[in-house]
Amino acid sequence: MNISLISPEVASSDNEPMIISAALKSSSAKVTELHHHSRGQLAGTLQGLMSIEVESCQWIVPATHGIWIPPNTKHSLLRSHGPFHGWSIYIQKSVCNNLPIKPCILELSSLLREAITRSMTWHNTELQPEHKRLMAVILDEISIIPQVKIALPMPKDIRLLKIALALSDNPSDDRNINEWSVWAGISRRSLTRRFTNETGFNFTEWRQKLRMLKALELLVAGKPITEVSLNLGYDNISRFIAIFRQNFGVTPGYYQKAMRNNHPWRNFTNTII
Asked: What keywords are annotated for this sequence in UniProt (predicted)?
């Protein structure tokens, strides 16, 4: 489904309000074509992974994080993986000077999440001073929260991208590299070489890291660790715990407890790539 959260005219308007919030929940996957607008955009999902192209780079971003897209930066939503439940805020170009100048992944503090959620209720509402103060909080949070290297790069070769998108839809798919090469119509040798050249990871590493991104979402949602492990294709929970610790420096249980206690995410989510 190709739907924009707001019209192109509004996304490029420098009129008030300073921040425009929009959300969309759909039972089908969502895509948008390559485009740009003069407002800066912070985008994320409430559930699921999304694949985004920004300045010729293609990333997979988990629901635990958001992507900042500066004004006039070309970007597209390659697809959401499964039903779409996403949000965006669009910020006047004139107030983006203190915000990141390049696309980046942000760790979405609890304060920023709550402020954005509150702003979603302001449609067709005359903005009051308290609304504008909360907008200022949103801008402050975007300017100071840490940027993290958590997004997973997507391959560009159309055959490899087909595999990457299929795995993003179903991270537990355990077909081996030979089966994937036949399915995508590419030799195993080419798949192996191109995957490493285009993403920086070999196929096994890339799939493992994709599963870890999905694990973050499921753990934050309160899913039991055993269920998360099985949902991601690990029939050995000890192996899942070991791989999670290898990527994030803590066990899934520790991470889940820290999230419940509103612990800053920066200690865990800057080591996946």
From this structure: DNA-binding, Repressor, Transcription, Transcription regulation
